[in-house]
# Entry
Amino acid sequence: MKEFKSFYKEVKGNEGSKCLYNKRLDTYGCGCQHDCSYCYAKSLLNFRGLWDAREPSVADIDRISRKIDRLNPGDTVRMGGMTDCFQPIEKQYGITAGTIRLLNKRGIHYLIVTKSDMVCEYMDILDKQLAHIQISTTWIPCEKAVSTERRIKAIETLYDAGFDVAVRLSPFLPQFVDFERLNNIRCEKIIVEFLRVNHWIKKWLPLDYSEYTVKQSGYEHLPLEKKIEYLSKVTGFSEVSVCEDVTEHWEYWRECVNFNKEDCCNLRKDVKQI
# Structure
């Protein structure tokens, strides 16, 4: 087992300035068994020889505990910023489960972003006042994660149980999306994140990127008018938000689209137990 030492990060720069939840805690790192072809984290680490999808590194739960002890009750950390905290290796090591228990004890909110339905197996330890869950759906056929249908079932299971859960359409590639199925998911909230492209992603996910004409922060993006056009196909949710990197686009979504202007993740901090 390789130890993942850089499990905690406070994101700064362009992304950190736009994201309300810049504290990131990854229970596994330097690789993810889902190994998605469009993963920006993979594109950042692979060329430096720091990506091993077959054997990700594992964070030490004692070091995580010491870091959590330095956080303040009421803080929010994002779990799954660089790799999926519910990738299959969690079955072997249980670091995510241990981390959730520590966060519960300290009264710290945690935003889980995952492509796995394993999160439903943890409903007995997820605190409805502290847990905020976004399950990513894409319909991209090359994915190694569990099927989109299993993820949708997980979303609806958590929603029915009263958890703060959202669909995360990430990345939003409209040519793959089953919009009829998407718009009939039993959930109020959706977070949309458009694809950001670099040369690694073009290599791993060969598509027509001729529409990606906006360049910012080392990535290519769709122009705002195209994003608005594609977002209009997402109609089945009462609370819509867009997670955005491009500054001018972020300002538009914030003022004109996002359900919560101050929080594009639209977390509920007043969830009531049922």
